[in-house]
Design brief:
heterodimer; A: alpha+beta; Ubiquitin-like (UB roll); Fumarate Reductase Iron-sulfur Protein, Chain B, domain 2; five-stranded mixed β-sheet; two-stranded antiparallel ribbon; 8 helices; 11% strand; B: alpha+beta; Flavocytochrome C3, Chain A, domain 1; Methane Monooxygenase Hydroxylase, Chain G, domain 1; five-stranded parallel β-sheet; 17 helices; globular
Chain lengths: 253, 675
């Protein structure tokens, strides 16, 4: 296959970016999208040009490091028959001669570092605000001290599979980080271990979410549509229910 | 540290032209007494640090996977100042996240007679009697605490309808002791450690440095006192100082270029420490996993593993006749198929151990009976050849027996993953699989306290060598990472830190810090100034081919010597002809990779020397010269019952071998058997 790529090139956060057109020859349909970018980068390197910077690591869809907007959808969901990360999107999803647009996540809370690489450290700070159970090493009771009903355990698990890639933010017209936040809220809210801090947690995490510059949620659903791990959209309903409940709890604050 | 050589002794060892023999090395920290009392005794005897003094002490931890993240969180909770580094953009992305299967723990929740001793026994035996007994016993001992800790953090392990934890069996043991979280156990455990870590970041005890790569160790006055890092966004080369340094930097499987490791996994932190004096133990012990998705072509960047549980119902075969290899497998008649594992090992069939299944797949492809797309390879003389690297894993019989839904219930997520990567429907056409590198048992040498031979330098998780011997059992990597991070290191490092308040202050003006900083800058300048004609990846791929061909599933004296010569040649070419674009003061991924590949050359050479000197087969290390009449691995306990700890003596100089004799008091040495 031969592909025309239009890629966002931006030297750093301070400079202006632009789309640059490249031709990529001899693309195999078995290549992953990132391997196709590798191929282009090898070519650019030999020519003495700067290769395109993009984040990636595990290349098996679990670490959450990769993520670009492809033809206008996060992780190229619009081209893929199934939910996917960018690294698990394969070139057989495109036709020979296609022109493909590649852009970074675009959101105020995710400033561009270079080309397709953005700074997602705001997600870490949302977790720092309360996305944990306060238990020190060594102080845990026996694992069977608390039974957890299977349905709640499964719902906790469905939410816990979030990989923190940021596609939800990139897809949202408001650039909201609500699906990411709701996934953690729901994961811990379904488990007995998460109960003592349940109401304090949501207030602190949401305050940080807003302070980091993410937009509000207006229930559009683009986030869940592109989520590579198919985090359920109703986790946001869970978050809203817990938020309302928390307003009537003092939790020592 | 002594480098005395015993020339006469060394001459007797195979490959003696490539190294010299030094003094033996031994662990001095495990106390005497019965094995089940050693850990309690050590914890009691180890010195303590008063809580008020802890905040005056700083610990650097490199890596945020299970071993590093858990240690950083635990030491932060204890009250130390922790500086935690990772090359990824967030600590949550460390490659522990990719582990699928589960984590072992001797909980005996199944009432099937499991115990600490049985987990210990299984792990030592699985490691083919090349692990250190005392460390492994402790690993088994703390395993149950890990599960308690993780559940308390909210890790969503699989549960039964009664609300209690589910278990499954794994990796050839006879009890059900594996806890799991669907096919994402590593992810869920890592997120648990990550959340504990972020809690400490918020509390101010841990300072997190993401997108920072460690490029040098600072050894001042004989102690590990700091590191040099490169800020991967700005390119700034910085020094950080501490009272102790912990490396939790994972394995080095990417020396093969293609492996199931993440793209960024590298040996640089460990190798830099090795060059500063830390011994590297058993580098040749590599685990090759049989059920991975095969290579599709030369642009392949990594390999993906599928759980070996697939071998429970899938049948492995290749065509009997090489001319059938290009055909649609469904058109190959039953009598023209060679179910080679069932043929060679009638009692175990498709369920032979990982190393056997891997080696036999390679043999079939070497014979020209592999399937799938042919990939370009080079023979010993550098001539190009095209070889199909794949064998079929066929579920048609299982589908006939269990129905499509029955197979989907057991393996649905793996079938989906396979379909997404290959574009083929495994319900209709057999899967193609091929072995791939996925874990390295070797690593920096540590004692019972997880201290390297450099005072103040500790090594945890896959980065050290101590627990898995020559082969790691399934679901044991997660166990070791968390055991080291949550329970072992936080209890042993105090013994060293108790004296650290008296250490003289070390800062950027110390000659050792200046030397380390300048050497890093010099190396980067050199890489950027070569401006040759070949890309970093082209060198890395070529190194990977050499390692895979000669230091992979089957190793021979002749092949290893050839590999060493080829590596030397390629390394020399690298430093003359590599092309690294851009500048240091920028986000420069080519420069990052160049530094890592430069270290992989040196590591790859040491792996070959280690493999050459160990003229026995054990676990993942198969020497063609040492096999039984049936072609099985043959150990030589009389000659090789030791861990090989290698000392670096200078670029281009022969490394020095320090042997640590392995003493088995609690367990009887046996030849591994699966007949």
């Amino acid at each position: 296959m031969n592909i025309t790529l239009r890629v966002w090139r931006q030297a750093n956060a301070a400079s202006e970016g632009r789309m640059v057109t490249y031709q990529v020859q001899d693309v195999s349909e078995d290549m992953s999208f990132l391997e196709m970018l590798d191929l282009l980068n090898e070519d650019l390197t030999v020519k003495g040009e700067e290769p395109i910077a993009f984040d990636h690591d595990c290349r098996e869809g679990i670490c959450g490091m990769c993520g670009v907007v492809i033809n206008g959808t996060a992780h190229g969901r619009g081209n893929s028959p199934v939910a996917t990360t960018t690294c698990q999107l394969h070139m057989r999803s495109f036709s020979d001669g296609a022109t493909i647009d590649v852009e970074p996540w675009r959101a105020g809370a995710f400033p561009v570092i270079k080309d397709l690489v953005v700074d997602r450290s705001a997600f870490d700070r949302i977790i720092q605000a309360g996305g944990y159970v306060s238990v020190n090493t060594g102080s845990a009771p026996d694992a069977h001290a608390n039974a957890v009903g299977k349905l709640k355990a499964d719902r906790a698990f469905d939410a816990a599979t979030c990989i923190g890639c940021g596609a939800c933010v990139a897809a949202c017209p408001n650039h909201s980080g609500m699906l990411f936040t709701a996934a953690k809220i729901t994961h811990l809210a379904m488990l007995p271990q998460g109960q003592p801090e349940r109401h304090l947690r949501i207030k602190k995490m949401l305050a940080t979410h807003d302070a980091e510059g993410f937009g509000g949620c207006t229930n559009i659903g683009e986030c869940a549509a592109v989520c590579p791990k198919e985090i359920p959209f109703d986790t946001i309903s869970q978050l809203n229910r817990d938020l309302i409940a928390s307003l009537f709890k003092r939790d020592g604050k | 540290m002594t480098t005395t050589t015993k020339a006469a002794d060394a001459k007797k060892l195979p490959g003696a032209d490539y190294f010299t023999l030094g003094e033996p090395v031994a662990d001095t920290k495990a106390p005497a007494g019965p094995i089940e009392q050693k850990w309690s005794k050590r914890k009691f005897e180890a010195k303590l640090v008063n809580p008020a003094n802890r905040r005056k002490l700083t610990v650097i931890i490199v890596g945020t996977g299970l071993a590093g993240g858990a240690a950083a969180a635990s030491l932060g909770e204890a009250g130390y100042n922790v500086l935690n580094f990772c090359y990824q953009d967030s600590p949550r992305r460390a490659h522990s996240i990719a582990a699928q299967g589960g984590i072992n723990a001797a909980k005996n929740y199944r009432n099937d007679n499991d115990s600490t001793y049985r987990l210990f026994y299984d792990t030592v035996k699985g490691g083919d009697y090349r692990a250190r007994e005392t460390n492994v016993y402790r690993l088994a001992e703390v395993s149950a605490n890990i599960i308690d800790q993780c559940v308390a953090q909210g890790v969503p392990f699989a549960r039964e309808y009664g609300g209690l934890l589910d278990n499954r069996s794994f990796g050839g043991v006879q009890v059900q002791r594996t806890f799991y979280a669907r096919g994402q156990t590593g992810q869920q455990l890592l997120i648990g450690a990550y959340q504990a870590l972020e809690r400490q970041v918020a509390a101010g005890t841990v300072k997190m440095y993401a997108r920072h790569e460690m490029l040098e160790l600072i050894v001042a006055d004989g102690k590990a006192r700091g590191i040099v890092t490169r800020d991967m966004v700005t390119g700034e080369i910085e020094t950080y100082f501490a009272d102790a340094v912990v490396l939790a930097t994972g394995g080095y499987g990417n020396v093969f270029f293609l492996s199931t490791n993440a793209m960024g996994c590298n040996v640089t932190a460990n190798w830099r420490a090795h060059r500063k004096g830390a011994y590297f133990a058993n580098p040749c012990y590599t685990q090759i996993h049989p059920t991975c998705i095969p290579v599709h072509g030369e642009t392949q960047s990594k390999l993906t593993l599928m759980s070996e549980s697939l071998r429970n119902d899938g049948r492995i075969w290749v065509p009997k006749n090489a001319e059938d290899c290009g055909k649609d497998p469904r058109e190959i008649a039953e009598e023209d198929r060679d179910y080679y594992l069932e043929r060679i090992y009638p009692s175990f069939g498709n369920l032979v151990p990982r190393d056997i299944a891997s080696r036999q797949a390679k043999n079939r492809c070497d014979e020209g009976r592999g399937v799938g797309p042919a990939v370009r390879e080079f023979d010993d003389d550098g001539n190009e050849k095209m070889v199909r690297r794949g064998v079929y894993l066929d579920f048609s019989e299982a589908i006939a027996r269990l129905g499509k839904d029955g197979v989907a219930a057991r393996y649905g997520n793996l079938f989906d993953m396979y379909a997404q990567i290959t574009g083929e429907n495994p319900y209709e056409t057999p899967m193609r699989i091929y072995p791939a590198v996925h874990y390295t048992m070797g690593g920096l040498w540590v004692d019972y306290d997880l201290s390297s031979n450099i005072p103040g330098l500790y090594v945890t998780g896959e980065a050290n060598f101590s627990d898995h011997g020559a082969n790691r059992l399934g679901a044991s990597a997660l166990m070791q990472g968390l055991a080291d991070g949550y329970f072992v290191l936080p209890n042993t490092i105090n013994d060293y830190l108790a004296d650290a308040l008296k250490f003289p202050k070390v800062d950027a003006s110390h000659p050792a810090a200046i030397e380390a900083l300048e050497s890093v800058k010099g190396r980067i300048d050199k890489l950027l100034s070569i401006n040759g004609s070949r890309t970093v990846d082209s060198f890395h791929k070529e190194l990977g081919h050499i390692m895979w061909e000669y230091c992979g599933m089957e190793r021979t004296e002749e092949g290893l010597k050839l590999a060493i010569a080829k590596i030397d040649e390629l390394q020399a070419e690298f430093w003359k002809d590599v092309k690294v674009t851009g500048v240091n003061e920028d986000f420069n991924q080519t420069l990052e990779r160049a530094g890592r590949v430069a270290d992989f050359f040196e590591l790859g050479r040491l792996m070959c020397v280690d493999a050459l000197h160990r003229r026995e087969s054990c676990g993942g290390h198969f020497r063609a010269e040492s096999q039984t009449e049936d072609g099985e691995a043959l150990r030589h306990d009389d000659e090789f019952l030791y861990a090989a700890a290698w000392e670096f003596t200078g670029t281009g100089e022969k490394p020095v071998l320090h042997k640590e004799d392995l003493v088995y008091e609690a367990i009887e040495l046996k030849q591994r058997s699966y007949k």
